[in-house]
Each structure stands twice: as structure tokens, then as C-alpha cells.
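We store chain and fold; example below:
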Amino acid sequence: MPLTLLRNDITKLPVDAIVNAANTGLRKGGGVCGAIFGAAGAERLQAACDRLAPIKTGEAVITEGFMLPAKYIIHVAGPVYRGGKHGEEGLLRACYLNALELALQHNCESIAFPLISSGIYGYPKAEALRVATAAISDFISEHDINVSLVLFDKASFAISQQLLGDVESYIEDRYVDEHLALRRKLSDAELKDFAFAETEAEVEVELEVDDLDLTKLREESLEFLEPVAEKAPIASPASPQGSLAPGTDLDSLVSNLDEPFAAMLLRLIDATGKKDAEIYRRANIDRRLFSKIRGNANYAPSKPTVLAFAVALELTLEQTADLLGRAGFALSPSRKFDVIVEFFIANRKYNIFQINEVLFSYDQPLLGGSL
């Protein structure tokens, strides 16, 4: 997908280019820089860097990848954080944009970044992430390139605690609602009628509220009880203004139950009056994947891809359920991924990169897709 968050070793990624958080002298350093030099072959990489050094803060230069899976290494010199009042944000943003421009000049279709300046250069991680995602999302809104932002661990990742608190409360409410509904609906005897096909073993479910692990109940005990198609029980917000062309009745667009997913998606995009590229980029969808969807009336997308388009089109929960249904999916209160995405749609928060940051923090799949 155009922008994805990873916890991985950047030196092992099979991308066209990786970015080295370098110093202005392009000398081998510690951390990510040292790991890249070591994996690429320090002697040959240093010789290549010496021919390009020195560089300015925010500037980007490119070398061969040598022993790396990546064809190229793009070296950028990030700013040292000095309180945020010395132009650090502009310089950090320039690192990402200059690296991306250089990647396109060398016909790169994929690139991986570390979180620049967030190590020994002292840039606060939450701010470093905000600048990174803003710069990258602005660039890919106009250009087709797949970008990975590689984070060492969760300590390298920080988002709004207020937002996380709101999401957590929403998840807890949905878990409680689901559990109480189960208790009202099913008796112990009815639960014991459910059995696994291979073993024919009886499924025993403990219904004492105080002792119940709600997460385990949702993910294990309730999985086989999930309905094939479920409408979200929360009242749908009004259709957002500006999403569709004036006079368009979106509800009438989603009323044809026999229409396949691809046909419905293309009609919805046409109804917005926006260009295809604007929608698939807002959905964090790779151009090649969108071309495949457009060219195949029977294309079967993944659930994250469908939800990504629902976010890009700013659909309501009810409209999202209709779109999911065309692809054979439903929003389920028994899956944390679904509940998190439902929270954002219910609250009309349609920034897909913010949604993915929260999904990432919960170790869930991200919205979007690529070939």
C-alpha cells in the first residue's frame, strides 16, 4: 500500500530504496546508520559516501545499495532537536520530501524510511511521527510510490493519548454490549449444542461476568456465532457534506443488492465528482491494485481494502455495511479491528493515516492495499 507502518529491520526489506538517517559528513554512525553500513558493506559504502560528502541538513543524496536487498540507499541529514524553535520541523519535513523526490528521479516504486532524527538527535517521537506521516501523505497524494515507515518498536511510536483513550472506551463499550446480548440470548444448554466439526467436543462457556475474559470470549467462543451479514447497531451519522456531487442520493446508489463490489465502488467514486486517483490515494490504495479492481468486474477485495474505500468516500456506517456486503464481509463486534474502524467511521474521522496509526498501536492489520 502507498503508506504502511512496520516494525522490522530496514536493512532486510525488499524495496527499491531505503533511507539512511545520516550525519552531514556521511560517516558511519550508530543506530540505524551503523546497521545500514554494516549490512551494505561498510568499506564500499563509505567510499561512495565520501564522494558525496558533506551534505546540508535536510538534503538527500543517493548511493548504490551494495549488499542490501534494496537497489539504492538515500542518505538524508536530519536536524538535531533544539526545542523546536530553530526550524527543525521544516528541515525534518525536507528530509522526507527530498528523499521521495530523489527516489522518483531514479524510478523507484518503493521506499522505506526510519523515523528520522528520533534517536540520538532528540526529536520527540510523537512529533517526529507527525511530521513524517504529514510529509509522506502530502507527497503520495500527488505521486504513485509505496512508502514504508519502519519503527524499531512501540517505544518509537506515540499518538494522541486522548484519541487512544476514546478508542479504548469505544472498544470496551462494544465488548460489554456484546457480552450482555449473549447472556440474554443464549442459555447454557443452548451453548452446549455448538460443537467443533472435527472433534464433536462440546463447547463450554462460563457466563459469570466477574470472571469472564471478554476478549477471549469475543475472539474464540463467539467466532462461530458471528452472523454472515450484520448491520452496525449504532445510529449512522448524516452523510458528510462535500463527499458526493450535489443532488446525488447515495442511498439509492447502494440499493441494488445484485451489484458486484467493483461496479458499486466505481459508481460511488463517480458520484463524488472526484478523480479516481484522488480517491484511491485517500484510500491508501496502490495504483496497480485500483487498476485491477477497475478492470475486473468480479474482483474480490480484502476487507481492509473495502474499508479503506469506505473511509476515502466518507461513507456512513450503514453505507459502509452495504459496501462490505458486496464483497461478502460485515462489521463484526467480535473483532477488534472492526470495532476500531467502526469508531472512526461512526465519529466521521476519515483520516486514513490516523486510523492506521491506531490500528498499528493495537497490532491490527492496516487499511489500504497493494499488489
Observations:
- The longest helix spans residues 161-185.
- The chain has 15 helices and six strands.
- Confidence is low (pLDDT under 50) at residues 194-242.
- The longest strand covers residues 17-22.
